[in-house]
């Protein structure tokens, strides 16, 4: 079977060496030494000042919303994983969907201002597949209207734009360290904050708002990363450059094998240092995508309709939130994320590409 992704595991001995540290300290949680070590290492690797590790990427978004005191309406993208919308709803805010740009698949900055009302407090956009939103234009709009900006950067680990970490844009950027990500802690995530005070509030809120034995300074939940998860992260982090290089090589194989097909890909961005997080292709029609998916599955190959459905069509949304987003809705009906992971072979990429060619040229 060829799945859409496979977790990249570190050398077991490297992981075990960090686990020995856990056994030595007998500290398993509560901001232990491995979490502190991983936090410092990630700050250096990613080129950011204020990073708070948490237990998953969804809680990272929720904590960013809460730490920034957001209320009312949050302008967001319909083309993302459902966690982006769920976090807004879970925090009692209202998602206002703005369609995406057909080249980048990220929120269309040209449409944002028309969606701003007196109730708007923030923009929450996703760097889709690790490709950057129009961060300059979005910040200009936010400054004009006194709005906060959060980026769901779950796909953007290590991405740089114009020689600067993409995570430095916005008031907060959130990361997922889920096992499917190129850098992972099995389960985990982080909030990167521009302002130190916001970072301290995220940290406090992630541990029940609790300081010392009996002092509670803020509303809080339990979003702490454990030492066991930090151990995994410390074992994986030194391999990140190798992981990205391997994914880049496999993406290049796809580029060559699929070159003669008219499959849409996200547009090239000047000054981008990409991480090769995903390899999405957009077919001309829903029918051709489904035909390719069916043939791939018949060969025990399992791509993913990532993202589907368009989030503005989620069935549990109130009808007045289900505003048309035709670009996102069209993309979600035609996209497949193809298998991409470190151990994927060139022969397998060739077979996947051949299946797609056979399916759409019948």
UniProtKB/TrEMBL annotation:
User: What domain of life is recorded for the organism?
Assistant: Bacteria
Catalytic residues? 181
Signal peptide residues on this chain, from the entry's feature table: none
Q: Does the keyword Transferase apply?
A: yes
SUPFAM superfamilies assigned:
PLP-dependent transferases
* N6-(pyridoxal phosphate)lysine modifications at: 181
Recorded GO terms, molecular function?
A: pyridoxal phosphate binding; transaminase activity
The entry's keywords: Aminotransferase, Pyridoxal phosphate, Transferase
Question: GO terms for biological process?
Answer: polysaccharide biosynthetic process
Give the record's family classification: Belongs to the DegT/DnrJ/EryC1 family.
Question: Can you name this protein?
Answer: DegT/DnrJ/EryC1/StrS family aminotransferase
* Organism listed in the record: Desulfobulbus oligotrophicus
């Amino acid at each position: 079977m060829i799945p859409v992704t496979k977790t990249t595991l570190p050398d077991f001995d490297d992981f075990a060496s960090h686990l020995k540290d856990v056994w030595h300290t007998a500290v398993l949680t509560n901001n232990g030494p491995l979490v502190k070590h991983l936090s410092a290492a990630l700050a250096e690797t990613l080129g950011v000042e204020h990073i708070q590790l948490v237990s998953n990427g969804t809680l990272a978004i929720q904590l960013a919303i809460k730490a920034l005191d957001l209320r009312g309406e949050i302008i967001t993208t319909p083309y993302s994983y459902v966690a982006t919308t769920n976090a807004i709803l879970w925090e009692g805010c209202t998602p206002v969907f703005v369609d995406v740009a057909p080249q980048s698949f990220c929120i269309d900055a040209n449409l944002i201002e028309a969606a701003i009302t007196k109730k708007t407090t923030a923009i929450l956009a996703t760097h889709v597949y690790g490709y950057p939103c129009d961060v300059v234009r979005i910040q200009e709009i936010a400054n004009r209207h006194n709005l906060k900006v959060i980026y769901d950067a779950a796909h953007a680990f290590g991405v740089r734009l114009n020689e600067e970490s993409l995570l430095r844009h916005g008031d907060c950027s959130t990361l997922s360290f889920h096992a499917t990500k190129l850098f992972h802690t099995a389960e985990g995530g982080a909030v990167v904050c521009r302002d130190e005070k916001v970072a301290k509030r995220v940290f406090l809120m992630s541990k029940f708002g609790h300081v010392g034995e009996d002092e509670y300074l803020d509303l809080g939940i339990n979003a702490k990363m454990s030492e066991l998860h930090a151990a995994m992260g410390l074992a994986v982090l030194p391999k990140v450059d190798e992981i990205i290089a391997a994914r880049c090589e496999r993406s290049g194989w796809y580029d060559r094998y699929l070159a003669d097909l008219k499959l849409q890909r996200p547009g090239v961005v000047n000054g981008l240092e990409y991480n090769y997080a995903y390899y999405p292709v957009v077919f001309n029609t829903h029918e051709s995508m489904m035909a390719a998916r069916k043939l791939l599955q018949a060969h025990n190959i399992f791509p993913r309709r990532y993202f589907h459905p368009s989030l503005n069509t989620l069935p549990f949304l109130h009808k007045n939130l289900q505003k048309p987003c035709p670009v996102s809705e069209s993309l979600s009906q035609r996209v497949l994320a193809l298998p991409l992971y470190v151990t994927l072979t060139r022969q397998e990429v060739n077979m996947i590409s051949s299946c797609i060619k056979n399916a759409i040229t019948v």
